[in-house]
């Protein structure tokens, strides 16, 4: 179960991706990734990926405020909110898989805290 907190507003969708592929993180391209989306809301947001076998995974999510299906950027800087499993500290790059990965059969995942840069 993934919980998302810290949305700036309730416009659009929350796009989520669950991957076990370090090369597929955080862009979530490739066939081995699970995708989902939910409407942005003021109530606590939760999403559950079903039929996930035990293993090491990472979650990438973004607040698709304009519902266009992509993380919009200006000069490479996200203009929409984003979050990753384990809430790694912000750096001048996206987190690596090992910074956001967790065991699916381990302790519950902490809520993903949405971050906005612009």
Protein architecture, described:
The protein has 118 residues and is mainly β. Helix content is 3%, strand content 34%. The protein is built from 1 helix and 10 strands, in the order ββββββββαββ. It has one helix at residues 97-100, and strands spanning 2-5, 13-19, 34-39, 45-47, 56-64, 73-74, 77-78, 82-84, 102-103, 112-113. The strands form 3 sheets. Strands 2, 3, 5, 8 and 9 form a 5-stranded antiparallel sheet that branches. A 3-stranded mixed sheet has the order 4-1-10, with no helix packed on it. The radius of gyration is 13 Å and the shape is globular. The model has no long low-confidence stretch (mean pLDDT 95).
Determine Rg (CA atoms, Å): 13 Å
Category from helices, strands and their pairing: mainly beta
Oligomer: single chain
Helix content: under 10%
The parts where pLDDT drops under 50 for at least 5 residues are none
Strand tally = 10
The general outline is globular
The succession of helices and strands, N to C, reads EEEEEEEEHEE
Q: If you average the pLDDT, what whole number results?
A: 95
Individual helix count: 1
How far apart are the first and last residues' alpha carbons, in Å?
28 Å
Largest sheet: 5 strands, antiparallel
Q: Indicate the proportion of strand residues.
A: 25-35%
């Amino acid at each position: 179960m993934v919980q998302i907190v810290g949305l700036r507003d309730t416009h659009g969708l929350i796009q989520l991706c669950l991957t076990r592929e370090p090369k597929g993180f955080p862009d979530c391209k490739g066939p081995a990734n699970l995708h989902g989306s939910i409407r942005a809301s003021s109530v606590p947001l939760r999403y559950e990926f079903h039929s996930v076998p035990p293993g090491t995974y990472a979650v990438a999510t973004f607040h698709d405020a304009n519902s266009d299906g992509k993380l919009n950027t200006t000069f490479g800087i996200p203009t929409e909110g984003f979050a990753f499993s384990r809430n790694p500290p912000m750096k001048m790059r996206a987190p690596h898989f090992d910074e956001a990965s967790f065991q699916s059969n381990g302790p519950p995942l902490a809520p993903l805290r949405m971050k906005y840069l612009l």
